[in-house]
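Re: Re: ligand-bound prediction request (bumping)

Still looking for help on this. To restate: I need the protein modeled with 4'-deoxy-4'-aminopyridoxal-5'-phosphate bound, output as structure tokens. Inputs repeated here so nobody has to scroll up.
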Amino acid sequence: MYIQITHKAQQIPPFIVMDVLERARALEREGVSIIHMEVGEPDFPTPTCIVKAGCQALSEGKTHYTHSQGILPLRESICEDYMKRYGVSVDPEQIIVTSGTSPALLMIFAAMLDSGDEIIMTNPYYPCYANMVNFIGGIPRLIPVSADVNFQLTPERVKRNLSSKTKAILINSPANPTGMSLSPSQMKSLSDLGVPIISDEIYHGIRYEEADHSILEFNDHAFVINGFSKRYAMTGWRLGYLIAPHDWIPALRKIQQNFFISAADFVQWAGRAALKEADPEVKRMVRTYRERRDTLVPALKKLGFRIPKVPEGAFYIFANCKKFSRNTYEFAFEILENAHVGITPGIDFGPMGEGYVRFSYANSLENILEGVERIRRYLESRRY
Ligand code: PMP
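Reply:
Sorry for the wait, this slipped through. Here it is.
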């Protein structure tokens, strides 16, 4: 019997960055050296204190299902972390620990959206946002934003897009793919609109000049998703969490129990060690990211990329490349094939990303400089 793959599964667009990465790997297999500036994950190994705690938990037999909301010591450490960083009080009962922030996002969308309901988000955006919302049957209400507003939502633009279908406003600060953030006053004005806010705080901790602010400082009824992938260089451990208002927890817990049961036991213990012990390591990584950013931004500008504002956090630069090409998908592959540098076409992040490419500086300074030099040589040769 032949059965069709569902419409909604077929409609999930591919991640173009994966196409770039796969082509890059194919070139590497042919012996070509590639500089990777397309990948969105820390190049650092997970700090030793976290690895040790994970190994110890494994050897102590922390290999079982846990409470579906996560082990209490981890949830308590998350509460302490939110108190220490932002001065906000979170109850461990408001937290569900998940296998990465991705399931946390999916769970919140699943609990919030009936068919045709809308979530307001920026365009450009982190692609999974729109893909997940569509998959659930909701509608991503995309608000075009550009460098003049730091690629972030403004209350005025959000207001114009509110409707009876609006269920929430999704914010991400510092953001993927732009590295730009919302100021505290912008967060407050968005919060004052009275619409539920989902705040993706996964890049918190990777911020260079200013302190991060959680949406919970302005709105104790907001939804937060956060995780260990970026700040603690733990992408492969798959650990994240959501914080939700108390009255949403029973529904979210049911989703967690049915779809995922719990996050991995020993990984949760490693996460607890991250929160308690890894801050000095995080500071070191952030200093290094900053040094790379401060080198890469002027170097790219010198090549002719337009970067009107210096990104404030995460490890991305969203550079305007309209001077070189109007089709950034083609441009990214052209750079890969000719300069042997992997970069992500802006179109991966929505229609407003066209004309931009994302450089990730989660790579060594040496490689970054080599990547810039390769692009310089190629662009130079392309002029003739
Ligand atoms: N949100 C944003 C903005 C991201 O960039 C990512 C990862 N690229 C995620 C969520 C998901 O991260 P994870 O599932 O590893 O926690």
